[in-house]
Amino acid sequence: MLKVIVSGIDGRMGHTVRAAVSEDPGFAGFEVVAGFDKRDGDAGGVPVFSSPDGDPGAVPRADAVIDFSSYAFVPKVLRYCALAKTPAVIATTALGEGELALMRDTAESVAVFHSANMSLGVNLVAKMSRLAAPAIEDGFDIEIVEAHHSQKKDAPSGTAMLLADAINDALAGRREYIYGRHGRDGRAPGQPEIGIHAVRGGTIPGRHAVLFAGPDETIEIVHTVYSRKVFAAGALKAAAFIAGKGPGLYDMDDLLGAASRGETV
Description:
single chain; 265 residues; alpha/beta; Dihydrodipicolinate Reductase, domain 2; 2 domains; five-stranded mixed beta sheet; 27% strand; elongated
C-alpha cells in the first residue's frame, strides 16, 4: 500500500485526488493517511494539519506528499518534506522564484517532483512541440492559445508557459514571448516570437493549442481536458514514481522516460 498525504485536501483537486484513491480501481493500492490545509481538523476520517512543518512528528508517516495547495502554502509543505524526509509531488501552479528556489534546495535532501501540469497528455504535447519546433522554425509563426474556467487565477496558465518554454528551449531561446496582440501591428512571417493568449470563461477545465503557422499550411497540436481526474491520476502516478527515490528534482520527462522504457507508471 502506497501511503500519501494530500496537501490542499479541502480544495477541488484535493477532493479529486481522494475520490480517485477511493473510487478508481487503478489506484486501489494507494491510501490517503493525512491532509494539509488552512485549518486543523478532519477530512472524511483523515487528520488535517495546518502547520505540518511545526511538528512533523505529529503527522502520520507517508511515502509521498501530493501538493495541490497554493503558492503561499508550498513553503510549509517543502519544509515538512525536508524535515520528515518524505518525497514531494508539487502540482501547485503560479509558483514564484522564491518557491522554486526553495523547491530546488529541498531537492538536495529529498526527492521532489514538479510539473506545471500533471496531465500526461499535456506533457506529451510539450515533447511533440519541442521535437517539431527546430524542424519547422524557418518561416513558421508559433502561437499558443489556452482556455480555462473563469475562476483561474493565473493568466497565462503555467501550462501555457510550460509549452512555450519547451519550444523555446528547443530553439535555443531565440523567440520572444508576446502576451496578446492588442495594439500591435501585423508581423512578417517567421518573426522570432511566440504569441501566448489566455481565454477565461465558464467551467472550462483546460484547453491548450500550439499552432505552427507557415506559408500555405498550419500544424496544430491540441490538448483538451474534460475532467480534473486526469490531474489527480498524473499526480498519483508521480507519487508512485518518486516513492523511495533518492534526492533530486524530477519532472514529467523522467516519468514519461520511464514509461517509454516499459516501466510501470
